Structures are given as C-alpha cells and as structure tokens.
Amino acid sequence: MGKKGTSLNKIINNHYSGLTSKGKILAEFVMSSPDKAVFMTTRKLAAAVGTSEATVVRFVRQLKYESYALFIQALRDLIDTELTLIERNRLTNHVVRSEDAQLEKITNQDIKDIKAMAKNIDLSEVKKIRKILKESEAVYVIGSRLSYAPAYYMGWTLTKIRKNVRIFNGSDRITIDQLVFASQKTAVVVIATSRYPNEIIRLGKLAHRYKLKLILLTDSTSCPLIQFCDHVLIAPLKTIPFLGDPTSLISLINYLVHTLVADMGKELKNHQEKLEQAYLENDILFSY
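RESULT FIELD:
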C-alpha cells in the first residue's frame, strides 16, 4: 500500500492511539529524529529505542505500509517536502567545536553525497541523455531558487560545446512564453532540489504538456516531477541539508557535460574556435 497522498506525519498521528507502548516509542523517535531514522535499518532502529526488529516490522505494518522500504521512502518524502527551515535547523548540530572540525564535517558530508551519486547513477540513462543533448535543435536549462545555481552552471558549460543553449530562471514568468513557443525538437532540462518550488513543477508540467523532450536532474525519488519526465537522473543526498546542498548535483552535471564533450566530434572544434574568436574580438577575458 503506497502512501503518496498522505504524509507520514498524518499517518502516525492517525494510528498513534492504537499503537503498542513500544510502537509509540518508535513513532516518537521517528518524528523527533527523522534525519537519523531515515538512514537506519530495522536492526539499527530497534537498537536505537531498545526493542526488537520484529517490533519494528509490526510497527510499520500497523501504519499500513507493506514493507519497511516503503516506510523509509515515506519518511524521506516527509523530509524532502515538509520539513520547514525551523525544523531543519532543529535537526542540525550547529555547535562549532573548532574551525577544522567543522570544515572536515561539511566536506565529508559532500564527499558522502557525491559517492552516493556515483554509486547509484544509471549509466544507460546518462547515455540516452547525452544523445538528446547532442542532437536536439535547442537545449533549455531551467532552475528555480536554489536549483538555479546548478542550472546556470550546466547551461553555461553547455554553451561552450554546442549552440542554441538557453538558461531560464523558473521564477521568471517569461519562461512560460519560451516553453509555449519552443520547437518540438527542443530538449528541456529541469533541475529540481528539495523542497521543490511550485514554479519549477508547473514549468516541468508545461514542457510535458507541449510534448517537449523533458530531462530531470534531481536529488531525491520524492521529486514530484519524476512522473512527467522522459529521462531522470538522481543525485541522492545521504544527509539532511539545512539550507540545501547542490554539491552532488553539480558533480553530476560536471560528469554529464564532460562526457558529452567526447561525443561532439569535429563540431566541438568549430564551435570553440568561433567562441575564442569572439572573445578575442570583444576583449572578453583578461590578458596580460
């Protein structure tokens, strides 16, 4: 039984009175420490509250989830879409014991996220996306709020290897006009980070409605745009970001664009020669 339509928070509240005493302890732990529980196996969750794995399994079934995996996915959905800044702040340990320790903590988190992306990436999907990015008449890259930063980076790097690349900010309503009148041979890349702004979801749906080839780069299977996209790449987060963290998405984009370079052949040389000539003629870059 899937629970996509109802948040885990509401489900637990609805079933709380009927839970056993151990079940109530599990519910309170999950809701007070979702950032810890979401990465726990049944064994670790049982150990955290001093109960058995069998009790954890019964707890999940009492909430009407068919498996522990579906329960954890519901918890991840809750974290990605419902936790406010205040709640994320409460879950984050901001105590800085030393500058070196804080630097090590943050960089280790980023490394963990990038490794998770590299381990889980679908290489066959990458190959299909590269083909679309190479052969499409135009490529539109769209981001919104936090995801505009990686979107701009992707669009900027793509302009260095192919023509007809445009970067759009999902917060700018003019993007709607551009999608409505885009050629059917246009590929649209949407970059979406949790907590998924409604404006980026609307634009993704619009591109889907106009039958544009739609590619999604996101940080979680919770992203509501997945169902509308032709191709999806996920850079999963292994930590719960307080203010958002596009590190693994940027690494994914870096990989995607650099492997695309190898596919471009002679077109790449001609494209870059034109760019360099324009840079020289217009005094774009600093030179001694």
